[in-house]
Amino acid sequence: MAARPLDELTRSAHTTDGADQAGEAGEPDHAAAAAETAEAAEAARAALDALVAQHAGSEDRSRLRRRLDDWHARNHHDVLGDRQRRAFAHRHAWLGVDPADSDGTLRLEARLDAVGGATVRAALEPLARPSQADDPRSGGQRLADALVALADMALDHGDLPQTAVARPHVLLITTPDHLHGMAGADPSRLDGVGPVSPDTARQVCCDADLTPITIRNSQILDVGRTRRTPTTAQRKAVIARDRTCIRLRRPRQPLPHPPHHLVAPPRHHRPA
User: Fold this and answer.
1) Do 249 and 131 touch, CB atoms closer than 8 A?
2) Residues 10, 39: contact at Cβ < 8 Å?
3) How far apart are the two ends of the chain, measured CA to CA in Å?
4) Is 188 exposed, middle or buried (0-12, 13-18, 19+ CB in 10 A)?
5) What per-residue confidence (pLDDT) applies to 31?
6) Could you give the CA distance from residue 119 to residue 111 in angstroms, rounded to a whole number?
7) Rounded CA separation 151/147 (Å)
8) Rounded Cα gap, residues 182 and 144, in angstroms
9) Are 212 and 224 in contact (CB under 8 A)?
10) 127 and 145 in contact (C-beta within 8 Å)?
């Protein structure tokens, strides 16, 4: 039996005689099945319209969307499947400098599918919680700090793919004169960003692997041994003293932060 469009099969279900509706011996009644499918679709649309009419005036858009998704999952899960496949195909992320931003910040934009978004949310939410009852940061600031903290953890402790040269890292080129804020010193440069202030350079240096390089007349004269600062003993001492990081930018536990960011506790033994 040749395949015919759904509407044609539906019409034939109401015009054929009883013998035709019964079909040939041993064959299914395609016209009747098509009619039942069309009627079911009409009933489904009516039920969905009734659901929207019932809740549209009393619920916000996100709750109504969840209610409709639940209905589709129960009655037409293929609709959710198609939508999720489209979302995955349209996933996108962008990281770069916006010319409209005059403060040198990087802008991050992302569009994720349901599974990817849930994965990122699960990783960020524990790091984005308020560090204390009077945390001065906004929700957006906490989320931004959590994203940076997650990247820090991946660079320091994660199993990221390594290039032929070195493991992934943040590269800062600086000089002692600029770190001390001396006028006229060559500026520190953050790879992929550009010149940064002495304060920002010191922030990067305080928990970095330092490689001293001697340059004269644009010629590299010497490359010293890479060393990490602070030392392991210094980090352990700070952990024993403070129990936690009190750096405002990333107030998280249990990862300690560099001693450069920490202030000795006052006499009542609480973090300053």
Assistant:
1) no
2) no
3) 83
4) buried
5) 53
6) 13
7) 6
8) 32
9) yes
10) yes
Cα dihedral 69, 73, 76, 78, rounded to 10, equals 90
176 vs 230, higher pLDDT: 176
pTM, full prediction:
0.51
Question: Residue written as tokens 């939508």?
Answer: 83
The pair of three-digit structure tokens given for residue 241, joined into one six-digit string: 């003293």
**Pairing status of strand 219-223 against strand 106-111:** unpaired
Dump pLDDT digits (tens) for 36-85.
445 555 666 677 677 667 767 666 777 777 777 777 677 776 776 787 88
Q: How far apart are CA 172 and CA 201, in angstroms?
A: 7
Task: Calculate the alpha carbon distances from 272 to 2, 185, 253, 257, 260 in Å.
Answer: 81, 33, 16, 14, 13
**Among 187, 189, 198, which residue's Cα sits nearest to residue 170?**
189
How far is 152 from 173, CA to CA, in rounded Å? 19
Other CB atoms within a 10 A radius of the CB of residue 128 amount to 21
Q: Is the pLDDT of residue 246 over 50?
A: no
Neighbour-count burial for 84-115, b at 16+ CB within 10 Å, e otherwise = eeebeeeeeeeeeeeeeeeeeeeeeeeebbee
